[in-house]
Design a protein that fits this description.
alpha/beta; eight-stranded mixed β-sheet; two-stranded antiparallel ribbon; 13 helices; DUF1501 domain-containing protein; DUF1501; TAT_signal; Alkaline_phosphatase_core_sf
Length: about 450
């Protein structure tokens, strides 16, 4: 009795497609990667043509210096910056986000999300997976986070592009857990602002392409014979994955999507000629071309005096000096992305989320800086309140959802959980949050154990 085709797909040994070394991605053949993903994918169903861009601010940005300022709080809480009005009456944000202020009618600020994990790995894992971490200090999540889940649930979608793309294999505290390595993103690690930026696993040298064409012609004749001999459909499945691998590596769609040089100088200038701006622009190109989920991390802004990420304790840097260098770059990149999404008619297809793993302590905590050797202001980790920006997705924009206490310490009105945001995203992507995967012990685990879509965004 022959085994089912999908069993053969999973257990067959790894083979090198066309014996071409340039068809590998991190040591795993691209066709193997696609085949493994398909073997564990959920049954195909009607999937909306929607995508998500997650701008991830690793380290935890201060809500008190960005989207939830408290000008009437005591000075040890309110800090040095002042709020400014936006183009939506009643929505005020930080003075160092003037470009945000011009597009406030195209985003919503959620001020009342909170959770209970005050370290980076645990906070990120909690926010992105919807589950309490078992080991909060571990840099890799014990549960699948949103990117890998989208990758797995949308693996049947074939747009000639990877369904999940990021600029790192995982965010700190994130990961794919029991969904396996195949659910991790296609990584675009280099700086899109560099003049020689390219994606090696997508771009093929013309000489290699000629050789590939010859090998494809030869393989076609063998494949016809193999299909004639195949009795259970397994070879047909292998052919499918080889075809998809070839499509990604040779199609104009994939190559053009990653080719940021096709953008006009005016557009690239609008986003900012820096790593953050060009990553945001690349993210827009990728979702516009059909990728389902793109994570771009905005850390290491490349500004003298700025810390690597958003974790601005006083020991790491002077909070306000750091933000004076960091926020203008962030402001330009994010506001340009939002404006571009709407101007290109992508606001119903694409949802943008801007967040870190938590907020910062409402009370400023001055300490001696490790590098400066002088007392300076900073804020510490604080999951009791945080601000999340959401744009597009065909949702209601130009509003603030929820509020915090007068000193910014805790969610006050319309208290929300990260799971409510995740539930909103999954619904937008056409993913059933109750769909279960088997964990390492064989237990069925629903995508989300709790949470419901945020009504105010509908």
């Amino acid at each position: 009795m022959s085994r089912p085709a999908n069993s053969i797909q999973v257990t067959q040994s790894r083979r090198s497609f066309l014996q071409a070394g340039f068809l590998t991605l991190g040591g795993l053949g691209l066709s193997d990667l696609l085949r493994l993903r398909e073997a564990a994918a959920s049954p195909a169903k009607t999937t909306p043509d929607t995508s998500v861009i997650l701008i991830w601010l690793q380290g935890g940005p201060s809500h008190m210096e960005t989207y939830d300022m408290k000008p009437n709080a005591p000075v040890e809480y309110r800090g040095e910056f002042n709020p400014i009005h936006t183009n939506v009456p009643g929505i005020d944000i930080c003075e160092h986000l003037p470009l945000h202020a011009k597009v406030a009618d195209r985003f919503t600020i959620i001020r009342s999300i909170s959770h209970g994990f005050a370290n980076h790995a645990g906070g990120a894992g909690r926010f992105l997976s919807g589950r309490d971490p078992l080991r909060p200090l571990e840099p890799i999540s014990q549960f699948p986070t949103i990117g890998p889940i989208v990758s797995k649930m949308r693996d049947h979608v074939n747009n000639g592009l990877p369904n999940y793309i990021g600029n790192q294999p995982r965010v700190y505290g994130g990961g794919s857990s029991y969904l396996g390595e195949a659910a991790l993103p296609f990584v675009v690690g280099s700086d899109p602002n560099l003049p020689n930026f390219q994606v090696p696993n997508i771009t093929i040298d013309n000489k290699l392409k000629d050789r590939l064409d010859d090998r494809v012609t030869l393989l076609t004749s063998f494949d016809q014979m193999r299909r004639d001999l195949d009795q259970n459909g397994s070879l047909k499945s292998i052919d499918k994955f080889n075809t998809r691998a070839l499509e990604m590596l040779t199609s104009d769609r994939a190559r053009n999507a990653f080719d940021i040089s096709q953008e006009s100088d005016a557009t690239r200038d609008k986003y900012g000629r820096h790593k953050w701006g060009q990553r945001a622009l690349l993210a827009r190109r990728l979702v516009e071309a059909g990728s389902s989920f793109v994570t771009m991390q905005m850390q290491n802004p490349g500004v003298k005096g700025c810390a690597g990420n958003w974790d601005i304790h006083a020991v790491n840097g002077h909070l306000y000096d750091d933000l004076r260098g960091r926020l203008p770059i962030f402001d330009r990149a994010v506001s340009a992305l939002i404006e571009d999404i709407y101007e290109r008619g992508l606001d119903k297809k694409v949802m943008v989320i801007v967040s870190g793993e938590f907020g910062r302590t409402p009370r400023i905590n001055p300490q001696k800086g490790t590098r400066s050797k002088v007392m300076q202001p900073g804020r510490d980790h604080w999951p009791g309140s945080m601000s999340v920006l959401v744009s597009g997705g065909g949702m209601k924009m130009g509003q603030v959802i929820g509020s915090t206490t007068s000193n910014g310490a805790y969610a006050k009105d319309n208290k929300l959980d990260p799971n409510d945001l995740l539930s909103t995203v999954y619904r937008f992507l056409g993913i059933d949050q109750n769909h279960a995967f088997l964990d390492h012990s064989g237990r069925p685990m629903p995508i989300l154990p709790k949470g419901k879509p945020i009504a105010e965004l509908s």
